[in-house]
Amino acid sequence: MPFMSLVERFLEFVKFDTQSDENTNLTPSTPGQMVFANYLKGELEKMGLCEISLDDNGYLMATLPANTDKADVPTVGFIAHMDTSPDMSGHNVKPRIVSNYPGGPITLNESLNVVLNPEQFPELNAYVGQDLIVTDGTTLLGADDKAGIAEIIAAVEYLQQHPEIKHGKIRIAFNPDEEIGLGAHKFDVDLFGADFAYTMDGSEVGELEFENFNAAVAKVTFKGLNVHPGYAKHKMLNSIRVANQFAIMLPRWETPEHTEGYEGFYHLIGVNGSVETTTLTYIIRDHDRDRFERRKKELEHLVRKINNEFPDCASIDIHDQYYNMREKIEPVMFVIDIAKQAMENAGIKPKVQPIRGGTDGAQLSFKGLPCPNIFAGGMNFHGRYEYVSIQAMEAAQRTIVEICRLVEQR
Questions:
Q1: Residues 6 or more apart from 119 whose CB is under 8 A from it?
Q2: Which of 131, 177, 178, 360 is catalytic?
């Protein structure tokens, strides 16, 4: 039975609704992810891979055995996540291929007037002449990270079909719940057994990332006192108004819409309020660990200021999510050198840059598995304007194959 092509696999994968949900307290957080995991397990079995395992938490792992006679070749791993973002629906995704993109606007949904326009997304201009997979304007696409899954499987298939390419043992893993920051929490690094690995979860062709934000989430709760508004003078305490006072105390320029590069931010992502109780949810991000710690202390300081004016009104709960993997990658920079050389061999110019976000690789690096991040090719993640170039996916597949070849040669 012939293998499915890279594109055929990707188009099949996006049919699965695998949105994660941070409110269920389950792993995987949604049942659709386990449905997809079982499907992928069947595909890996058909390919003849070995050491296939799928645990109750939805972590799927498999092995392509070495075909080299060399001893002591490191085991390299490739990892991608199965879930899609909760930010937009991933149900009933209807992808469409725009062949030989001529440039200019792409109408995704005429009735809803949803248009993918290079005036709004100038990165589109770099894809003229390529074949783009787009949405119908009502859902996200799921290239984040089903493109990564398809690329890993396609690369393994290519190696199976080309035994003349010598490689060591290759481990692959597909995990749940990356989009809610839990993708690596129950990842069994010892069971995976790789010496180092790469997440295929980046965006533009050539991206190679080993620096990411330090990250935390903070929930600030304000307690008020509700009385009839006609008789509220000197009695009512409106928690919504106090929460608003708190929010504007933070520096307005240190938000996502005003920062870039290595600049960190406070990002208000949720407001839930009534006169009696209001909660503000923030994510805190900074590449520099000291500045990251100072940002958390600043929120605690502002809570104290609120309580000086309104005694016992405000409380704060802060939880760290992940840290900058750079400190774990720098001692083993050869893993970056291999990836850069692999891209160059594949005709790709490496773009080493910091991630303005997070990746499972950050947590895995701190669990003892050095794990930088490589491009998967998708653009405009988490929304209706998401798209991926078929040529970009093919470039990612070539990069994986080259990494495997170079690891054996070295």
A1: 105
A2: 178
